[in-house]
Amino acid sequence: MSAAAGRRTEGRRVSVMMLAVTTTATLLAFGCLVAACSDPADERPAKPTGEPSITGTVTSTAGVTNGDIVGSFLVEDGTGDYDKASVTVTVKTGWFRHSGDAYVAIDRPTGQELAGKTVEVQFTGPVAESYPVQATAGWVIVGE
């Protein structure tokens, strides 16, 4: 093989490698864009699964806007794993009410609508073992 043919072959290899690197970078950028633009509400549970971490009465609420966090409430007179809990609500928290033997998804209630209601809450993620415990709600079932 001549020196000129060797340089052409080497040039083609470099071009193919550059194309592969460019394609990979484009796909990674597109994947990051899709992930950044996805709606966190799409990650809410479709229905409650498992047992509630606490069932009790909402005695106070607070509205908060801090990234994915949209509020919090205090549950007292609880049964289940805890008797009292400070519960953080995020855009990923699923909200439900009983409908016979099934559950119906509902919009997140306002603090006024939630105050005084009996709720069942399942925690997601770590639980701060202070008193009251502090945790994030995976789902909440609001009683009538």
Give the overall pLDDT as a whole number.
81
The share of residues in helices is: 25-40%
How many independent structural domains?
A: 2
Largest sheet properties = 5 strands, mixed, barrel
Helix/strand order, N-terminal first:
HEEEEEHEE
Uncertain parts: 20-38
Largest beta sheet: strand ordering: 1-2-3-7-6
Intertermini distance: 85 Å
Q: Count the strands?
A: 7
Helix tally equals 2
Strand content: 35-45%
The backbone outline, from C-alpha atoms, is globular
How many whole angstroms does the radius of gyration measure?
25 Å
Structural class, judged by helices and strands?
alpha+beta
Could you describe the 3D structure shown?
- The chain has two domains: 3-38; 43-142, no CATH class.
- It contains two helices and seven strands; from the N terminus they run αβββββαββ.
- It has helices at residues 3-37, 111-114; strands at residues 54-66, 69-80, 85-90, 94-99, 102-105, 118-128, 133-142.
- It has a five-stranded mixed beta barrel.
- Strand 4 and strand 5 form a beta hairpin.
- The longest helix has 35 residues, at 3-37.
- Mean pLDDT is 81; it is low at 20-38.
Q: Which helices and strands appear, and what pairs or packs with what?
A:
Layout: H1 3-37, E1 54-66, E2 69-80, E3 85-90, E4 94-99, E5 102-105, H2 111-114, E6 118-128, E7 133-142
Parallel strand pairs: 3-7, 4-7
Antiparallel strand pairs: 1-2, 1-6, 2-3, 4-5, 6-7
